[in-house]
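Friendly challenge for the regulars: who can give me the structure tokens for this chain first? No prize, just bragging rights.
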Amino acid sequence: MSLPGATPFKIAVSDDALKQLKAKLDLATFPDELEDVEWDYGTPLEDVKRLVDRWRNGYDWREHEAKLNAELPQFTRDIEIEGHGTLNVHYIHQESSNEKAIPLFFIEVRKILPLLTKGTEGPSFHVVAVGLPGYGFSEAPKKKGFSTPQYAEVGHKLMLSLGYNEYVTQGGDWGALITRQIASEYGGKASKAWHTNMPMALPPHPVYQPLSYLRYALTPYKPHEKAGLERSAMFALKGRGYFAIQSTRPQTLGYGLADSPVALLAWIYEKLVGWTDNYPWEDDEVLTWVSIYLFSRAGPTASTRIYYEVVQNKHFGDKLVPKVPTGFSYFPQEIVRNPISWTRGAGHVVYQKEHDKGGHFAAHERPDDLVGDLREMFGKKGPCFGVVPGKDGY
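First reply, four minutes later:
Bragging rights claimed.
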């Protein structure tokens, strides 16, 4: 359904952009590589050469562009952001056939959209997924200081513009921080509940959380909790190089990402593999993901600046404690995996679920698990049943 102010949208990359990609891939220069390093030094040369060859000689962007357009009901609309003028924002909006469905603001949506809008066995959702400004086909910010409060303002105003004066939110990665900001800033009146698959919390503090601190001093960690802490420590040691440069010198990095599709591919592919739980990536699946960054409205450099703004403005979200009902899903190969009890003090936590498979991109890796958690949380027997007044779940 197209509402006033909404403009229907279809992805339509120009022929010139596709020709330029082919020309650059034809001229690709690859670095050398040490023997027997596998992933120790970064994305393996063999993998990049295979993917580049597929990108040049077999991958058909038009085929995947058509699939995206067929699967996703897309729109754009102008949203005014305080201090930053008006941005034209790209989003996906699909209503459930169930009139009693719950309005849900979501971040990662392609695989999960058809599951969320069904309502035959449990609650269904009217789904809104925004392309964050600077990502995909949304207009990028033009001024400094566009950080999580501004991204949250985009999400909140988008929901209101669609007629959802009360809604719930879900997010992972940056979406976790942004939906946490929404739940904190707009919680109660508009944002009625929050769920994330990337729970973040600090260790129990002996002064501020003495009971939790004492509990952990007396109770040993379970094996999967130890594994999660070890993964978090390894990520901090060997996996945060991208974060360091994107949060300090995104423009310098941006020249490589914007000019070289091979550099962009290697940069993103490393994260797709390293942050998932042995997910069986197909080459075309990877190339579609990377192509969306390459063909994005503002180019791939724009997507790196959120790291700079969040770090420089100290918008880490650690001081945000949402009062709305909160749910957490835990996946073992998340890049930062805290013990479940660390997050019990991170707001009004009413739902927690641990899974034995899955990683950072839960909506892509384990869509059924994530949807199952949302159905449990908002279903008739769940802690957030009826959280949106006037709706009885399903």
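Strands lie at 7-9, 74-81, 85-94, 102-106, 125-130, 167-171, 191-196, 325-330, 348-354. The first strand starts at residue 7 and ends at 9. Your move, everyone else.
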